[in-house]
Amino acid sequence: MSERVVKIGLAGFGTVGSGVAKLILEDADAIAARTGLRLELACVVDIDTTSPRPVTLPAGVLTDDLNRLYDDDSIHIGVEMIGGTDVAKQVQLKMLAAGKDVVTANKALLAEHGNELIRAARVSGRCIAFEASCAGGMPIVSAIRTGLTANQINSMYGIVNGTCNYILSNMTAQNQDFAEALAEAQQKGYAEADPTLDISGGDSAHKLAILASIGFGYEIALDDIFVEGIEGISIDDIRYGGEMGYCLKLLAIGQRDEQGRISLRVHPSFIAKDCSLARVAGPFNAVSIFGSAVGQVMFYGRGAGMMPTASAVVADIVDVALGNSGTTF
């Protein structure tokens, strides 16, 4: 199979950015054999160019100068792994203006400014791919966008935050109180030092806003989503629910009614112990989608972490390079 070289500029060399670089450098031959695309890292940009990472870059690839990415016409795809909503937004806009397609895992930015960014991409004749933004390694965005394109999506619900699921799973299985379960999640790297965005339900709302925009075909704002987190959950809530045959999960829920109106909410929910979602434990995610033709389908997998998220980012890079990511929000 003849190969086509695809040069990539990576902005952000933290945990996930390191995973992306690792996959591109170490699996380039396997990816080329499967796709006919030879992925090459033209540059990796980060303000920290000295800290050790789990991957060694070729000499001269790492830089702290973003203009090197913007100004290199040989770079086809810009990968934004910076995070946040301010600098990252400007980086994506400049990538698009420079004629680069964009790949990102930035759920907060997409939830807050996704429609603006997509309009900028259309003006520039480029695309933004964001599989890794919603469920780590689970290919749920591409499933909704292409695999379920013959369906009207009527509802979706699921577990989209591994931190909360780990905490609630431990409260259920280990009889831990909330503070103890949170501390263990932080110790094992499943929760941030400041877990507010996760435990408040904000992270799940970001992901629901993106999935609902694609699935229901509406522009969704975060203010459209009712959000309640798990901070107020006690071990007594878990115990009493268990006695009645239920377990507690933080669910992201989107529904279309008979008049076509959409309701969106994130909140703790009691579900029957024999429900498939009840068996999703620890940091894993799972989402059920109900389509008009296919019925119910369910996606399950690791929703975060360096390599699962990097897997989705590299899949997006390949999709963009093959011309399969033109349709987004």
Indicate the topology.
Layout (H helix, E strand, L loop, with lengths): L3 E8 L3 H12 L1 H8 L1 E9 L16 E2 L3 H5 L5 E4 L6 H11 L3 E4 L2 H18 L3 E2 L2 H4 L4 H8 L5 E7 L2 H12 L4 H10 L8 H4 L2 H15 L9 E2 L7 H9 L2 E11 L5 E11 L11 E8 L3 E8 L3 H16 L8
Parallel strand pairs: 1-2, 1-4, 2-3, 4-5, 5-6, 8-10
Antiparallel strand pairs: 7-9, 7-11, 9-10, 11-12
Helix pairs in contact: 1-13, 4-5, 5-11, 8-9
Structure description:
The protein is an alpha/beta fold and about 325 residues long. It folds into two domains: about 5-135 and about 305-320, NAD(P)-binding Rossmann-like Domain (Rossmann fold, 3-Layer(aba) Sandwich); about 145-300, Dihydrodipicolinate Reductase, domain 2 (2-Layer Sandwich). The protein is built from 13 helices and twelve strands. It has helices at about 15-25, 30-35, 65-70, 85-95, 105-125, 130-135, 140-145, 160-175, 180-185, 195-200, 200-215, 235-245, 305-320; strands spanning about 5-10, 35-45, 60-65, 75-80, 100-105, 130, 155-160, 225, 245-255, 260-270, 285-290, 295-300. The chain has a six-stranded parallel sheet with strand order 3-2-1-4-5-6, with helices on both faces. Strands 8-10-9-7-11-12 form a six-stranded mixed sheet. Helix 4 runs parallel beside helix 5 (about 105-125). The chain starts with a strand and ends in an 8-residue tail after the last helix.
